[in-house]
Amino acid sequence: MATSSILDLGTKPTRSVAVSSVKELANLKSIPSSYVHPTMTNCEASDSRPDDGSIPIIDFSLLVSDDPDERSRMIEELGKACRNWGFFMVVNHGVGVDLMQAILDDCNEFFNLTTEEKLEFQGKHVLDPIRYGTSFNASVEKSYFWRDFLKAFVHPLFNFPNKPPGFSELANEYCSKIRRLTNELLKGISASLGLEPSYIAKALNLESSLQIFITNYYPPCPEPELAIGIAPHSDHGILTLLIQNGIGGLQIMHDGRWVEVNPISNSLLVNTGDHLEILSNGKYKSVLHRAVVNNKATRISLAVADGPSLDAIVSPAPELLDSEENLAKYRPMKYKEYLVAQQSNPISGKSALDRVRI
Ligand SMILES: O=C(O)CCC(=O)C(=O)O
Ligand SMILES: [Fe+2]
Question: Which residues form the Fe2OG dioxygenase domain (predicted)?
Answer without folding.
Answer: 208-308
